[in-house]
């Protein structure tokens, strides 16, 4: 049915004990059933992507069906409507998806012994956009990582202008600022969150004196030949996240179009190994 979220597909770890949980959001026009199998079984060398993360639990939600403005109002699975895969604005429909994803995060934190740092929020294309926005607007404990493959950040140019106008960057471990500079940086971050919440039509204003997202590392992978979401949009996402204080591991892949590759997934495994110590880096 339109507007409803189908049940997620959950893949248990290949080995015990359960280490991390990866919530992976598909792109527009896909669903969990079409997306998860080929991703997990991608050969990244001497093993599949899933085999490289044997202690990981994977959760693949499906976006609701809605009319896509870009495709002449064709009915398809999408996390929100918009003008294109790189759209600078959301154009409505983002609120239910963010609330659904936050609900999944809360549920998976319980499964992970209430350890939010064992949760990785990942996405492909429009799913990457939702992963970025949902992680920034998440008001629980810090997540283990956020991952965007072939994706973009909605409102990136506008949000960068907010930060550039204020002229201050602030990270989780920065202690070199004067108190007034720290206050200015927090105010800039609050403006960014307020803009995102308004665009997503989320109720109220999330006021906080402590931002948890700077402690969440980010991985961004993108093909240099991507014509659906050109690599400049991934670069903008990286710049925005860095200005918000996140540590971003950014990779481009020569000649790759709008899809993931074995090299990209291998780099992702190494990133998770380094950041979350879930598996020794691949040789």
From TrEMBL:
Coiled coil: none
SUPFAM superfamilies documented for this protein: alpha/beta-Hydrolases
Signal peptide feature range: none
Listed InterPro entries: AB_hydrolase_fold, LYPA1-2/EST-like, PLipase/COase/thioEstase
Record domain Phospholipase/carboxylesterase/thioesterase: where: 15-159, 208-274
A Pfam family the protein falls into: Abhydrolase_2
One of the record's GO molecular function terms: palmitoyl-(protein) hydrolase activity
GO cellular component term of the entry, any: cytoplasm
Family: Belongs to the AB hydrolase superfamily. AB hydrolase 2 family.
PANTHER family: LYSOPHOSPHOLIPASE-RELATED, PHOSPHOLIPASE_CARBOXYLESTERASE_THIOESTERASE DOMAIN-CONTAINING PROTEIN
Designated name of the protein: Acyl-protein thioesterase 1
Lineage: Eukaryota, Fungi, Dikarya, Ascomycota, Pezizomycotina
